[in-house]
Amino acid sequence: MGKGGEIMKTRKEFLEAVMKMGNLKDLKQADEAARAVISLTKTIIGRELSQKIADISPPDLREGWESIQATQLDDYERDERLFEIGEIEEEGRPSL
């Protein structure tokens, strides 16, 4: 929610909320964090649902949403492998 309980209508309001919630130092950091999360989200939810979100968003937020590309699958798969490696290391520990 934006100021006074209103729904956020602008990217600036959205980034200000991200900055506060993420305890980030400025709007540039908030923009980088938001872009990363939105890109990953778009990869996970797929093109059709992503378009539905854009369709119901206020114009400025829609423009921001549509300007961010989904994470490339090879990047996403690389990250998944990193998570798997971390899990494998934990599984390799002797049980107590």
Range of helix content: over 70%
Class inferred from helices and paired strands: mainly alpha
- What is the element string, with H for helices and E for strands? HHHH
Radius of gyration, taken over Cα atoms and rounded to an integer in Å: 17 Å
Notable features of this structure?
4 helices, flat, mainly alpha, about 100 residues
Give a verbal description of the structure.
- The protein has 96 residues and is an all-alpha fold.
- It has one domain (7-91).
- It contains four helices and no strands.
- Helix 1 packs across helix 2 (27-56).
- It starts with 10 loop residues before the first helix and ends in a 5-residue tail after the last helix.
- Residues 87-96 have low confidence and may be disordered.
Summarize the topology:
Layout: H1 11-21, H2 27-56, H3 59-67, H4 73-91
Provide a quick synopsis of the model.
By secondary structure, this protein is mainly alpha-helical. 72% of the residues lie in helices and 0% in strands.
